[in-house]
TrEMBL record:
Single GO term (MF): isomerase activity
Keyword Plastid attached: no
Pfam families: SnoaL_2
Species in which this protein is naturally found: Roseimicrobium gellanilyticum
Protein name according to UniProt: Ketosteroid isomerase-like protein
Keywords assigned by UniProt, alphabetized: Isomerase
Chain ranges of the SnoaL-like domain: 12-125
Stored InterPro entries: NTF2-like_dom_sf, SnoaL-like
Length: 135
């Protein structure tokens, strides 16, 4: 039998793969509890940080292909304890539009620490600490 921790790690891996492939609608919503909340700590792209509920997350996912040609998560470490999963990853994206000094077609990179709290096999809380490479 697969442990809860192993199941939770697989859920997070599957979620990040769905984000990479620009999943939208039900293909993305299936990962979240109905009352899920993503907390983004202040960073270069979002200096004030923010909170996103599921409807906002799904709306933002629809905009990704307009902004990014592609994106990829390279997971460096992933650990689970009970219903919590922590991920250290490098995110790399090719831009579809210019952002700041980066041109369309340019690459944006960030180092992420992402902490998930799961409930009933779905993401209930997600906290992102995003450290972007200079541009």
């Amino acid at each position: 039998m697969i442990s809860t921790e192993a199941q939770n790690i697989q859920l997070v891996r599957d979620y990040l793969a769905a984000v990479e492939s620009n999943a939208t609608g039900d293909a993305l919503a299936r990962f979240y509890t109905t009352d899920a909340l993503q907390i983004e700590l202040p960073n270069r792209l979002n200096p004030s940080g923010g909170h996103s509920d599921v409807p906002n997350l799904l709306k933002r996912a629809e905009q990704v292909p307009v902004i990014l040609q592609s994106q990829e998560y390279e997971i460096h470490s992933i650990v689970s304890q009970g219903d919590r999963v922590a991920v250290e990853a490098t995110w790399t994206a090719v831009l579809a539009v210019p952002i700041a000094s980066l041109p369309a077609g340019g690459t944006m990179m960030a180092h992420f620490a992402i902490f998930f709290e799961l409930r009933d096999g779905k993401i209930h809380r997600q906290r992102n600490y995003d450290c972007f490479e200079p541009w």
